[in-house]
Amino acid sequence: MESLFPVKEVPVPYPNYTKSGEICTWDSGKHTGYKMIIREDNNKVLSCMTNDYKLVKNEDIYNIASLIIKRKDGNLVDTQIFGDGQRTMWKWRFANIKVRVNKNDFINPEIIIKNSYDGTVGVHAMGGAFRLICSNGMIIGTIVKQFNAKHSIYNKQLDNIEKVIEETIKMTLEVAKENFSEWVSIDIGEDEIIKLFSLFPLEMNEFVAQYMIAQKPNTLWDLYNCATNIISHKMSKHKEATHKVEMSLFPFMKRIAAQA
After folding, report:
1. What value does the mean pLDDT take over residues 150-155?
2. Taking phi first (over 0 means left), then psi (-120 to 50 degrees means alpha), and beta for anything else, what does residue 33 get?
């Protein structure tokens, strides 16, 4: 699997300078306090981190998660690699668990796990749900469980990743208990539509506005349908901004439902 490429840590050596200020040699015996994270399959430098950074390999996370999820009948449905491998995301879906929302509309629980080699994302696991709206589908963000562990040698959470992932999966399956049918009877107005704009990147605002004018959503379920269709059909799943919108959508809808 491409996302499980090997990586290694290489200490950054201390430079020795000539009188004119040019680097003449490197002294590996002196500590700079930094290290490079390097892909071993192509020798690309993924990042330069301080020695406080704790390397957690994609392979280790994937092997732990896939074993647990397989026992729960979950299947890997997508893998995304961002940059040159600095960030990775996996999605597993529990396709055997379906919640009927309205006629032919169903929800499937999912779990998303992320990792990075540049410190931008910790070991991140979150519960989500998948709505069968078209062949490429979409993720609906955090539901009842989210975990984020910073890559730090001082972070004890990284010593117990297996337990955390197991708890996240358990809570993810709680999505099956959500009563989505209530959303059909919750009326929404201009205020809710305007608030939805804040979830999308600024460059999407004009399209979102025109789409909402054309679709005229009246209920929370209508609004949800509009948002999922925009994400699924007009935003690239290869961009991180898309996944940020996806992860914000479900909590946004739940807040509106709770206030109704």
Report:
1. 90
2. left
